[in-house]
Amino acid sequence: MNDHINTFESPQPNHPEMGLRDWVITVFLSFLPLIGLVMLIFWSLNDHINPNKRNWARAVLIVYLIFTVLYLLFILLFAGTMMSGMEEMYRM
Question: Which of 1, 36, 45, 46 could link 32 by a cystine bridge, Cβ 3.0 to 4.6 Å?
């Protein structure tokens, strides 16, 4: 009768919880200009890293990608507006 599977058990092994010091070091390293990007890529691709850090690094990279695309779209829109304004100015 009690042969059902407990759905609340995690199939993954338990990983140690990251402490405050670990998170401060992680965030500090991710803020460094070039090293941070390299570390985020390393953390997101490494299967031996704590899953919380790996998922956080993946989320940060996705946010960076979204903001980079929005930034490039804004620059293209601004450049197009400036070019059309310059064209109008030379017609006069």
Answer: 36
